[in-house]
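Entry 12.
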Amino acid sequence: MENPANPCYKDTGITFYVLSVTSSRDEEHVPLASSWFGRRLRVDAAGATPDVQKFRMLKNFDFGRIFSMTTSTFASRILALVSVVRRQSFPTQAKEGWNGWKRSQVSKTRPGAPGVHLSSRPIRLSSRPQRTSVIPTEVRSLLRTNAVEGPAFSVLSFASALLLAVFMLAAASAHATTHTVTDLTDSASDPGSIRYAVNNAANGDTIVFSSTLNGGTILLNPNNGALILTQSATITGPGANLLTISGGSTGINSYSGVTIFVVNSGVTASISGLTIADGNASGGPAALNNGGGIYIHNGGTLTVSNSTISGNTTGGGPSGNQGGGIFNGGTLTVSNSTISGNTATGSGLGGGINNNGTLTVSNSTISGNTANGGNGGGIWSSGTLTVSNSTISGNILPGNSNGGGIYVGYGTVTLTNSIVAGNTEGQAGTDCVSCGTQSSNNLISTPSNIIDPNLGPLQYNGGPTETMLPLTGSPAIATGLSSTLSTDQRGDPRPAGNDIGSDLGAVETTPLTVTTTADTTNSGTSCDGSATCSLRDALTLTNSNGGNDIEFATGLKGIITLSRALPAVAANTNIVGPGANLLTVSGNKSATVGSVFVVNSGVTADLSGLTIANGNGGSGNGGGVVNSGGINNSGTLTVSNSTFSGNTTGNGGGSGPGAGAGGGIFNNGGTLTVSNSTFSGNTAGFGGGIYNYINGTATVSNRTFSGNT
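Predicted 3D structure (tokens):
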């Protein structure tokens, strides 16, 4: 063991920051007690320092620990090593330095004094992660004892220290790890769980999810508490429509469930491609009572993109109750996301989001949130709020409260190309309270100017999140400024050029409007609502245009009876009906018509608000949609708020699904999502309601199956 009083430690006075200590005898890492981590040790001119004696010899720095530090902490530790170490002569045997010592020599000679030497030879970083107490060879060459004969100096100037800090920061970034979540459990000891990944993520790490989890829900155990982000990590989900993390809440006033994510101060994190649902701020250990889905501490930074925050609650605790969906005390950016169905209970403020810091919202939809007894159904803000190209509509304030969309307690708000209208509050038109004077390129209801934005319901209109589509004649269409955003929330393109106005809100649309229930072909029609346009015309145009929204003229209802097969859906298409109880598309049980809709491979289609009836897949598949007698789907199809009734395929004449499968929908290797829909009285040889064929993916929720055979 080394003797710190040896003259080789003689120095004019140097300060070290202790990161770790290594035994000179066996080179094993000796962990420091937490109370000593980062402690300064001063070696005086006489060399006698009790602190150093306690720790054997200060010979090495553990960069495994540095990698786990925050960037700012790391830089401060490195820059603290600005020092000059003077050393005396050493025994000849010590000339070999650190790398030349042998175990057999330990008893015969002693290593050189502690010092810092900045190597001039090139540094080549390994791509392998280094998070152990073992120091990489390349790093050891930078920080090693450099024993020499005669008086010598080892110098780490301020410039060199800064260079070393930059070098090590780059190394830390280069060694970032990707953690893959492979199961739906919530266990800190399970390497495949989300909790294990979050607990073990270091700065710069990424958390992703196995595709085998698509269509599933990760249900958190409230006894385990929230998922707490203590390091700056990136969490990347497969899509908000494909994977949900649930806090397990059973009701808005219950104590069941738990807040799902907590972002600590000093952390910069991002979450994308997930649904964060059913969190409860009053449940679990160390309940925060604010932020049912996400809680961001003061000094924390979070970016949420392409995600859904839905069905979360503050839970009715004795205090707090701010931010049903998200409570922001730091810096929050929300883009291409939907905040819906969240509740701030009690006298809570901000059903969707409560902002006490800096909040930026773009290309997003905030709808269906409630602040019970408080203000700000969609957003309550007491900081800096910036909203662009977003839709804030359909939020609810029961009683006499005001600010159904936005309530500004204090601070600033800037709105651009956005909709804040169609919310429900105590005084009609108080959709944006204390919002001040905003530019004219917004739709903002006021008590003296109540605006109907004419939006469709919150539903899937394309893309991984639910949106509210501007319907034909909406004042939101083409009345905004040219957007700096290239796409809308769904991923559809926005117009470019200063002379072209974008649509207000989160959705850009140029709808084709069906004006007749007749199954006719009207040559030359533009389907812009000014001339006759059939469903057949609209499908032909959307295929020609490369994709469109298809809507139906206000008041159009009844039955569209097909006389022959409709064109297959060959381009990304969103068909928005007025309601399954109002409009039916019927195949008339005709084998000539076949399936009512066919969705081609590679196409993304959405269908809502229709009844699909009496399709006939013949001896093939899919009476309603091909995927079936009703629909035959080989692409990506999302169906919501619809009914499939009386569709049929062949009666199982074949020996398997090659004939007569999927009376309502035949999912032919595509991706199918069905919600809030009814399947009744459909018939097939296999799968009367839905048949999911080989390699297909089907997710079905909130549905009714009745009388299918």
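Annotation: The first strand starts at residue 14 and ends at 17. The radius of gyration is 32 Å.
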